[in-house]
Amino acid sequence: MMEYTDDEQIGQKVLLQELDAEPMRMINPWMPEYINVSIGRLFISWSRQLDRDIAAGAEPPLPSRDLGRFEDVMQRWITKTDAFLGTHQYELVEVLDWLLLAGAERHPWLYNVDDRNRPKKLVKCQTIEALFEESQKCMRRHPKGKRKTEIDLGIGDEQFVMELGAGYTLVQLLSPDALDVESARMKHCIGNGVYDGKLDIPGHCFFSVRDRNGQPHATVEIAPKDIDGVAQGVVRQIQGPRNTTVVPAILDLLTPALDDILCHDTPAVLPAPAPPVGRF
């Protein structure tokens, strides 16, 4: 049985914070715990091996951002978290999609637990690769997963919003099918029912930045927020393919358009969708 030191518990909290796991309780109250039992547990195992490698002479990971404002213990865990997420980026996007889908649909295996109330399917996975394979088995069986890239979207699914310049356009995603297609093309978890619940919430919207061939390059989530008693739209997240950072050139084109789509009384924002999850 894996026990964690106080220091390692800090590391798990840093990982959950980096994954923005706490808002995922809106999908399922136990989402952060599911992530801790699976990804978090393997993160600590990875960290222990990294420490052994460093003690044997390996180079420690370098910080990927300015950490000057954090104390040493936080700097160390943030640097480790960045290295871990970077190493397993593709697999973890797929695993998070699977956990969000399972949590949203209350898959029965989540309730087959051990004596510590941990889903046995997650506990049995001893590597990220094993978790990834479990995610792929589930997604291959999922009925929506077999057709979502083939959906012929109509006028009720997507709506042109504006030209952004340089051949790029902004399109609003209006239906669960549109979210599924965006998810399949961008390889993130906006689809599979995870965000469908917010499509009916006024002020909560999703947009896709498309090139002249219709290929998506960024997905934008706008959420309503009470500011001085007035409901206004705010950018909750902007994600590139596989939840990567959007390239600066596309952000430069998108930024001037945000004033229009964030205005709380514009038609583009009022009819809308999505649930508060950290990343697609």
List keywords for this structure.
8 helices, alpha+beta, 5-stranded antiparallel β-sheet, disordered C terminus, globular, 280 residues, single chain
Write the layout of secondary structure elements.
Blueprint: H1 6-18, H2 31-55, H3 72-87, H4 89-105, H5 120-123, H6 128-141, E1 158-165, E2 168-173, H7 176-186, E3 205-210, E4 216-227, E5 230-239, H8 248-262
Antiparallel strand pairs: 1-2, 2-3, 3-4, 4-5
Helix pairs in contact: 1-2, 1-3, 2-4, 4-6
Overall description:
The protein has 280 residues and is of the alpha+beta class. 41% of the residues lie in helices and 15% in strands. The protein is built from eight helices and five strands. It has helices at residues 6-18, 31-55, 72-87, 89-105, 120-123, 128-141, 176-186, 248-262; strands spanning 158-165, 168-173, 205-210, 216-227, 230-239. Strands 1-2-3-4-5 form a five-stranded antiparallel β-sheet, with helices on both faces. 38% of the residues are buried.
